[in-house]
Design brief:
Blueprint: E1 10-13, E2 26-31, E3 38-43, H1 57-81
Antiparallel strand pairs: 1-2, 2-3
C-alpha cells in the first residue's frame, strides 16, 4: 500500500465574516520550484500593482503570524525532502 502525506500549501488571512475571495484577503503560500520551499504573499485585488500588497495596520499581526506558520511548514518540508546527512 502506498503511503501518503498531507502538505499545507497556503493560509488565507481575511477579516472575519468576509469571503476568502475578499479584496482584503491575503494568501500566504508555499512554493517549491525544485529547490528549497519558499513563502509567497499575494492578494486578489485587481486595483493593486503587480507585486504590491496593501494592508491596514490591524492586518499586520495576523498576516505576520500566518507568514511565520508557513515559514515553519517550509522548513519542515525542506527537511523531509533534503534530510541532513
Amino acid at each position: 500500500m502506498t503511503e501518503y502525506e498531507t502538505i499545507t500549501l497556503s493560509l488565507i488571512v481575511k477579516p472575519k465574516g468576509e469571503p476568502i475571495f475578499s479584496e482584503r484577503s491575503t494568501i500566504i503560500g508555499m512554493t517549491d520550484e525544485a529547490s528549497v520551499p519558499f513563502v509567497t504573499i499575494r492578494q486578489k485585488n485587481d486595483d493593486i500593482l503587480a507585486g504590491e500588497i496593501r494592508m491596514d495596520s490591524s492586518d499586520w499581526k495576523p498576516i505576520r503570524e500566518a507568514i511565520e506558520i508557513m515559514i515553519n511548514i517550509c522548513e519542515t518540508q525542506d527537511k523531509s525532502i533534503n534530510p541532513e546527512p
